[in-house]
Amino acid sequence: MSNPSDGPQSDSAELPVPRLDVDVIREFGPFRAYATDVRVDSGVEPDRLVKTHCCFCGQQCGLQLKVKDNTVIGIEPWYDFPFNRGMLCPKGVTRFLQQAHPDRLLHAYEKDASSAAGFRKLDYDEAIRRVAEAIDRIQTEHGADAFAVLSGASLTTEKTYLMGKFAHMCLRTANIDYNGRLCMVSAGAGNKKAFGVDRAANPWSDILGAEVILVAGANVAECAPITTNYIWQAREHGAKVIVVDPRITPLARTCDLFLPVKPGRDTALFSGILQLMIENDWLDHQFIKDNTAGFEAVAEQVHEWTPKRTAEVTGVAEKSIRQAAEWWGKAKTSFLMHARGIEHHSHGVQNVLSTINIVLASGRIGRPNCGYATITGQANGQGGREHGQKCDQLPGGRDLGNEEHRAYVAKVWDMNPDDLPRPGVDAYEIMRKAHKGEIRGLLSICFNPVVSLPDNNFVREALAKLDFFVAIDFFMSETARYAHVVLPGSLQEEDDGTVTQVEGRIVRINQAVECPGDAKQDWRIIQDIAKALGREHGLTFESPREMFEELRVASRGGVCDYSGVTYERIEEHFGVFWPCRSPTPDAPPEPGPQGTLRLFEPGSWNPVAKGAGPFYFPDGKARFQPTPYVGPAEDVDEEYPIILTTGRVVSQFLSGNQTRRIGPLVDHYPEPRVEIHPRLAARLDIKEGDWTTVESRRGTCTLRASVVTTIRPDTVFIPYHWGGRKSANQLTIAAQDPISKIPEYKVCAVQVVRADGPPNYAMVLEPQQ
Amino acid sequence: MPVPETHEFFVDPGRCIGCQSCIQACAQCDTHKGQSMIQLDFVDRARSTQTLPVICMHCESPTCAEVCPADAIKRTEDGIVQTARKPRCIACNNCVLACPFGVPKMSTRMNLMMKCDMCYDRTSVGLKPMCASVCPSQALAFGTREEMAKLRPNARAVNTFQFGAQTIRTKVNVMVPVDAPREVVDVTAAMYVATIGHDILDDVFGEAGEES
Asked: B7-210 sits in which CATH class?
């Protein structure tokens, strides 16, 4: 795969530079698809409309796919689905273009150094045999844990359940983790520490009646666009909107109070707000006394966060901090939401807990119009983190390290609990172990770590060291390019199942079309591998519904209890909110037909407190957690004086493996740009559109500058959806939160200089490549 | 079946988040599949994330029709100004140049002026237009005046516009703050003085924001 233009582009010879992959791109894309033929023929009527949900983010908007023969020819709004009532973002509107795409993998492939693209077609059954042989060989020679599994939270809940079972029961490897490690885990860990359960506390309808809405580190308009209307509808009736962000996002543009926090200083900000609430007695003493524990220790710990000190550390004006505390403190109803902006930190869990502390101190939770939630990122960001594909987890939100939990699940799986592996390591640690040679084989599905993990030059090295790597994907992702065998998996519209969206609402994904060529539904591929290994016991499901029925049993009695949920009930009620338990002798009757819309309501029952209180601890009380302020792992210095923060744009999704193949989305925002404030740009002699090199201790990246006043002058921003030399994650740091293991995507130190001219890639790659 | 009189279109630029959902959805309208009739752009990206969607305003007395030498542009009884009729349109571009809102587009491939017909295939059977259906911030909204007044009590629907000496009344409404003064847009003035790009936003970061 060598190419004459593959040479290094940077002066810093010691920094790694990814290859351009020109030949593999020529064969497998990403190329841009536009509507043509049957999709633009005005005379064509669809054969049927399939009610389902979007394949992209955690909002899971309801929509209808227009299907003609085996092609999705367009979308039709689904006005009756209550969450989005027909509304869709541009990704949802154009998603049909990912199906019947020219880049689609229709065959299995194996690595072939003699071919220009690096791969040759392989018979599907032969490919499965090779995968099974490699797994068996590696596990026999190096132990069960030497083969790892990486999974994803865009898969249906049925598939995520199957992936956990496949790793823990069939492969008996401790090392399975998922890409929610880069997404939901700080919020999840924070929620479990404070509430004992990890789910949005409220349905989104509670936003509409809130007096104050606090949005922390969430680019709502671009990353969860449907939520925008909820927030603005609340504002039409008088709600005040407070936005905490280093950038003036489209939502922040018209908010009532903007707190331009310096990246990495969120805990300080919320500690300062809590201190002002205490000082002014804007507290719900009764709620704190009856429903929480640990307030005194937290109060003592935030005492030092005077407005002055908070302002110094956070870079937010003292006046604004006081105003935010007053609005939040005095509100009668409120909704606090956050996302990756405060979670993607080496102290992400502390950031989350610091926001929960101001919610608990206000007493505004567990009631109508009094809400708190993290905004899940991926399609199944919620369901994908509940049922056993996390490194320490078993179905139902159970723990792999808990003997009772092991015994229960082993019984459902018809196996000896002692044969279940112990908890394994997180996704990035899997890469480190691969780099060290401790992990020799890897199966990955629904994960594109070469684009999405931080310090991805290291990730590429790690993948290249594997004895055997098999990737299941529907397109040749940047990661699949490193695989020895690529198996052709399924698109969301080619399978049935359920996902659990941002509110904790379980919704139905309905199959619209059949898999093309040799492509197979992902769960069939996994079961084919298990069969070829001769270890198919427990992995002989005939349908997603059958998996769901087993999942109901496996989750029964757990915190994430799905036992009362059926496909029929989901369809009848536009989704069911978990926990939704089937009747048992010791639990009160199940909640209403839609399950549990709002958590923590006074008098509510849960399997941990068993009636002692609304929160998921034995005493039923929520926990205030001390959140001592810790700065970013890598602060700026003389050599690297500027903060880099990363994020998303509205027209792209995650690693871009799908959205960089959808023409209209690529055209909207073709290539990553470095956002830079005009004052910083003037100092660096950089003008709008100039090629600009951003360099960290780990990598270098040359992109065009976008000179805008909508970002802090000490910070630059790059969206991360691209691979190779356009990848922001060449620069980011692999520092991780000690509890959640989420990487610190939102802060690292860089230097920025104007480049002499365009980088090599500009001449040979299309924008999306 | 005509578009029901009770249902109107409302544009609220203050709500626009620039996501282009409307553009992508417009391109799925059955009469011009693959092509969008909506224009949307940043007002001044260097200073703000403000974006502005432009759809056909469906004028009571459409300038595009008035200047058409071939009488190709028709306004149906329900107030919808239709795309030029293919057999009549001579692709002269008069309408493109004359429209005060800059809406009609010339399709050189088809030699035809094309513009928004408010999703006639949908609105004439009681459905919302595609753009107003999908718009995630409801900057583009379709419904009754009563619904709108209830949902957005702080805004006023305006459908009279002054361009120099020309007064234009439109079927489509623009939402403005309830207490906003009436604006007279002088098109000729805009030819000499930039009308955008100043004072859109205070510099909230200030110099102090740079220090820790």
From this structure: alpha beta
